Each structure stands twice: as structure tokens, then as C-alpha cells.
Amino acid sequence: MYHYARVIELLNCLERAEELLTHRGICGKSIRITAYPEREEGVGVIEAPRGTLIHHYKVDRYGAIRKANLIVATGHNNIAMNRSVELVAREYIHGGEVREGLLNRVEGAIRCYDPCLSCSTHALGQMPLRIRLYSHERVLLKEMQRD
Length: 147
Fold this sequence. Notes:
Elements: H1 2-21, H2 24-27, E1 41-48, E2 51-59, E3 65-71, H3 73-92, E4 93-94, E5 97-98, H4 102-111, H5 117-121, E6 129-134, E7 140-146
Antiparallel strand pairs: 1-2, 2-3, 4-5, 6-7
């Protein structure tokens, strides 16, 4: 149901964006920033569709950004993404034999956590992937690749 929830959230965001883009107070011609920054450093935390985004900025006395550090959802989702790929592997790999569809399922698992909208929605089955299956003795048993 994850993808359905994202579609509902996207529709809500588009409706809200339309409201904001037609608001007279926001889109008026009398908007001008005349203040200088109160602080030269700030941190913002935003909950986004695929995870938490953390922004850390430093500005000069005129408000020009001098340093920016972003921690994006991929970093937060790395453990969950790895566990999802592991679950797919346990389902599709048995005794060194790989069932058909492994690459597509791994791709699907990764896309659930991808913070980049264009990456999460581009054509299915076209994500470049390389999967290597090793024995317990670290001998390469099989390699599958899609460019």
C-alpha cells in the first residue's frame, strides 16, 4: 500500500500548491525582503514523502549561503533498504539457484526508499543493477547485471 499512500499524498500536495500559487498575499507584487538574518546558522528538519530531510545552513551577515549540509532520506533509509533487499534475496535465492524476477524485485525494494522522485518513478525494469551471488566460502556463484 506504500505506493497508493504516495499517490494520495502527491495529490494532496498538488492541491495545496494550487491554493498557494493563487493566493494574493503570496503571489502579490508588493513582496520585498528588507531584513538581515537574525542568526548566521540554522537547522531545519522536514518530513518528506520518503523520509526525514535535515538541512543545516550557515549564512553571512547579508544572508548569502556560505555553507550547506543536507542529510537526505537515503541515509536514514539505508538500513531499511538493505533489509528489504535481503528479504527479496531470501525469497528468490535457494541453494545457489536464482528464481526469475530477482532483478525486478530488488529494483522494487530500492525504489520504495529512493528520495528522488524522478528516480522512483522512471520506467520499471530499467534501473541499472548488478547482483553477485557468493558462496559461504566467498566464491562467486553467479552474476546478474542490467545496464
